[in-house]
Automatic annotation (TrEMBL):
Residues 5-350 form the Isopropylmalate dehydrogenase-like domain. InterPro entries: ICDH/IPMDH (IPR050501), IsoCit/isopropylmalate_DH_CS (IPR019818), IsoPropMal-DH-like_dom (IPR024084), TTC_DH (IPR011829). Its cofactor is Mg(2+); Mn(2+). It catalyses: (R)-malate + NAD(+) = pyruvate + CO2 + NADH. Belongs to the isocitrate and isopropylmalate dehydrogenases family. The keyword Transmembrane does not apply. It is an enzyme of class 1 (oxidoreductase). Keywords: Manganese, Metal-binding, NAD, Oxidoreductase. This is D-malate dehydrogenase (decarboxylating). It comes from Robertmurraya mangrovi. SUPFAM superfamilies: Isocitrate/Isopropylmalate dehydrogenase-like (SSF53659). One of its GO terms (molecular function) is tartrate dehydrogenase activity.
Length: 358
């Protein structure tokens, strides 16, 4: 019997509510499947932890996480702690130390969800964005000078390395070759305005593409690409982007397939030297925290991505089928999807569907 160890980091706000439901779903599928077990360790690292200890996690936090198979995270960030503190104190160190250089975000219209784009069906909206996750525009290289004077200034450098760019592009071409419907990779760029890093990126797109003769590629400026996500999303399949461009594109992606309540993401260390981390795209949503109405589907979809990465394909698919069943029925949904149900009711209902299906 296989056993997987999972670190739970519910974090702040609705992170706590949605991770609770995700864990329920994981327990349900593992019990029904019978071929694997899951062991959890839960950590209370969060902004609340920061208020007590002056840091987001203990000094040996990363050491403690290192040997898990996966990390399942809710969300971090809460009013009172600046966002850059919570991000740089917990999320970014995990992504960077554990070389989770791939951020995978499916932009897939599930059955039962109405896209805000008129007339678009699940066949039209089914693409995946691969966001570079550890370098690019989100570097901490730079500084502030002359604060408080007329010469007040700030500089932030972007970092694009051969290693970092090649590996994210290879991941995209590999994915397209193995699973792509169109065998086509679209790379986001802005080499007209950003004239050092982006031409560098484009050059490597051409170079890496040569290793994949059966896959084609195109390089599209990020501003146009954002517009095309709205006007002709059906033309895309695998989209690869730098850290900042991927971040923006995937929030847009989430919006066209039903919103943050159902948008999942995975931070992957493809070599499996370190644990990968699975987290909904949404944040801690202070406006609805504690009300019991957060949509748990984004977090539950993450459990499917986690099981897929662990090699439990059947269970991963069963979770997606259960989610789509619930969405199509439209009986038990949270308010963001027009329903009246609670977070817990949706989680329970998805578990019930799983029990009926397996
Ligand atoms: P947010 O994603 O928390 O909320 C944006 C809006 O979407 C809110 O109106 C919220 O109610 C709604 N929403 C989000 N998730 C939902 C769900 N599951 N069900 C129903 N409605 C949902 O983004 P916001 O407000 O910009 O950030 C709040 C805090 O979360 C900040 O401290 C921010 O830094 C943090 N954050 C953390 C992230 C992470 O942990 N990866 C990602 C994004 C934000
Ligand atoms: Mg974002």
């Amino acid at each position: 019997m296989k056993n997987y160890s999972i670190a739970l980091l519910p974090g702040d706000g609705i992170g706590v509510d949605v991770v609770r439901e995700g864990k329920k779903v994981l327990d349900t599928v593992s019990a029904l499947h019978g071929g694997f077990t899951l062991n959890y360790e839960e950590y209370d690292w969060s902004c609340e932890y920061y208020a007590k200890h002056g840091k987001m996690m203990p000094d040996d936090g990363l050491e403690r996480l290192r040997n898990f198979d996966s990390i399942y995270l809710g969300a971090v960030g809460y009013p009172g702690v600046p966002d850059h503190v919570s991000l740089w104190g917990l999320l970014l160190p995990i992504r960077r130390q554990f070389e989770q250089y791939i951020n995978l975000r499916p932009v897939k219209l599930l059955k039962g969800i109405q896209s805000p784009l008129a007339g678009k069906t699940p066949e039209d909206l089914d693409l995946i964005v691969i966001r570079e996750n550890v370098e690019g525009e989100y570097s901490n290289i730079g500084g502030r000078m002359y604060e408080g004077t007329d010469m007040d200034m700030a500089i932030q450098n972007s970092v694009f390395t051969k290693k970092g760019v090649e590996r994210v592009l290879r991941y995209a071409f590999d994915l397209s070759q193995a699973k792509g419907k169109k065998k086509h990779v679209t790379a986001a760029t802005k080499s007209n305005g950003i004239n050092h890093t982006m031409p560098f990126w484009d050059e490597y797109v051409h170079k890496i593409n040569k290793e994949y003769p059966d896959v084609t590629s195109s390089i599209v400026h990020i501003d146009a690409l954002a517009a095309f996500f709205v006007s002709k999303p059906e033309t895309f399949d695998v989209v690869v982007a730098s850290n900042l461009f991927g971040d923006i594109l995937t929030d847009l992606g989430a919006a066209i397939v039903g919103g943050l309540g159902i948008a999942p993401s995975a931070n992957i260390n493809p070599e499996k030297r370190y644990p990968s981390m699975f987290e909904p795209v949404h944040g801690s949503a202070p406006d609805i925290a504690g009300k019991g109405i957060a949509n748990p589907i984004a977090a539950i979809w993450c459990t499917s991505m986690m099981l897929e990465q662990l090699g439990e394909q059947d269970s991963a698919e069963a979770i997606m089928t259960a989610i789509e069943d619930v969405l199509q029925e439209k009986e038990i949904l949270t308010p963001d999807l027009g329903g009246k149900s609670t977070t817990e009711e949706v989680g329970d209902y998805i578990c019930k569907k799983l029990k009926n299906s397996l």
